[in-house]
Specification:
mainly beta
Length: 331
Amino acid sequence: MTNTRVTILLLIVFMTTSLAFADNYHANTAPHSSTVSIDRSQLTHLNDTTAGKDDIEHLDEIWKGVSSSFDFPYKEWESKTFLEGLSGNIGYHHPISQTKSANLPAGSTQGPSNHNTTSTLSLKYAIAGSWFISGTLYYYWDKDQKQDWNPDFTYVFGYSDWRPYTVSLVYSNYGGNRFNPEAGNPVTEFNQGTWALGWKFPITEPFIDWLSFTEEGAIGCQIDYNLTPEYFDLASISYKKNHQTVSLGCKYSIWGNWYMNGTAFYYFDDSQKQPWNPDYTYGFGYFDWRPGTITLQYNNYSGNRWNRSERGENTGRFKDGAITLAYSFSF
């Protein structure tokens, strides 16, 4: 088997179920970019195109991915049972730093990640094809540190295909959702969730050869346009309209199930950037998508800044990240 085929198989094994895991980053900013993988039926064809043998075939492959996006396989939907599409994970998330979170006005449903150990139960239902809905329940070990913007539950739905060159559209809400909100407050603020329109693509030869330091190395990326219709602005202590960013996220599979990833953000209006909104995020660890396996990750979604002097208090440092231990399962 060629190195290119090994690389593609690693992408399949490593990246196809990343949406199932709870992600603290979503609580503060636009969705973390998904990554791309490739199925076996594309191996021979993509091996030829990435080798540069036929640029026209490569363009055809891109068009195939784009044009097949948002397909809904009705026959699959009609024939499957509910449990066939259900999977999930149980997670334990421990922040490295124990510093208390910022004290924002009461009732704020958006804010920085607070340093509170949590346990989560995440469930994802694959409706048909790449259409899905998922949700996560949160348990806070230190209830005194739970802030208004720390959710009881979060939810995500939309279309996200793992295949290369496909377009995705995902809505996520990681705000201060409550099962039993205070009088006059809603269970969830739908307008404070984020819509993300994305496009997946692999890093192919010869670029992967320049960027990877292992023979098994593989990189998948996604670019997203992210829109939050309503967001909390700390400077004016009020809610404003249409927080917009573009993000570019890539995941590098080093060898086996070991990886590192990163996402960079561009803000259309820099004044919209809050102290907890990052210029970039990053993570690394061991990820296994298969049911019945353990995943161990470090993720840092705090207010990381290219210019360290612009960081908000108690954000953007390595110790402001968290370690996650999760167990995945299916029905």
